[in-house]
Design a protein that fits this description.
This protein has four helices and ten strands; from the N terminus they run αααβαβββββββββ. Strands 1, 2, 3, 4, 5, 6, 7, 8, 9 and 10 form a ten-stranded mixed β-sheet that branches. It starts with a helix and ends with a strand.
């Protein structure tokens, strides 16, 4: 019986069935689990690509949306400071009794520059603070921008109200400021 136990014990030890010179799939220098991480990264990459292809076929990005995104990226100004919206009469304003179509009042601020804008059906009216001359562009897409000029008092007007999303780009002698994008 001891011969039987000795024989069975020799075969049940770890590595007893390995051939001489056989080694693990991991190289001698690989950390335990490193192979698993690489497999998972490969699997994740393949899964992501498969999902991307499925979305392109089943739910493609509309051409107009893609074009608008590319156009918006082209309108960015890397050197410009962004003026944040600090007041919007649609959100922060108190309704006036009897007013059927009140103008939209907006205030943007960036550092020491404040831009007050009134958007009406007739167009834009605005003022820069501190007052001073500036070139102003009404950004609304990749095409021609409406160009306005602020006088020495910082006042400007534009005849055509923006349609759809818009932003203002202000060029003073010292800096470039771009307002946040809003929907008219």
């Amino acid at each position: 019986m001891s011969d039987l136990n000795d024989e069975r014990g020799a075969h049940d030890e770890p590595g007893a069935h390995d051939e001489p010179g056989a080694h693990d799939e991991r190289g001698a220098h690989d950390e335990p689990g490193a192979h698993d991480e690489r497999d998972q990264e490969l699997y994740d990459g393949l899964l992501e690509e498969e999902l991307r292809q499925a979305a392109a076929i089943l739910d493609p990005v509309p051409a107009d949306l893609r074009r608008t995104a590319v156009d918006a990226f082209a309108l960015r100004d890397l050197d410009a400071r962004v003026a944040e919206l600090t007041f919007d009469s649609l959100v922060d304003g108190i309704p006036v009794r009897g007013e059927t179509d009140p103008p939209r009042m907006l205030t943007f601020q960036s550092g020491g520059v404040t831009v007050d804008v009134e958007v009406t059906a007739e167009g834009l009216i605005g003022q820069l603070l501190p007052p001073g001359p500036a070139g102003i562009e009404v950004l609304s897409g990749p095409g021609e921008h409406v160009r306005l000029t602020a006088d020495d008092m910082g006042r400007f007007t534009g005849e055509a109200p923006p349609a759809g999303p818009f932003a203002l780009r202000l060029r003073t002698g010292r800096e470039v400021v771009v307002t946040q994008w809003l929907r008219a």
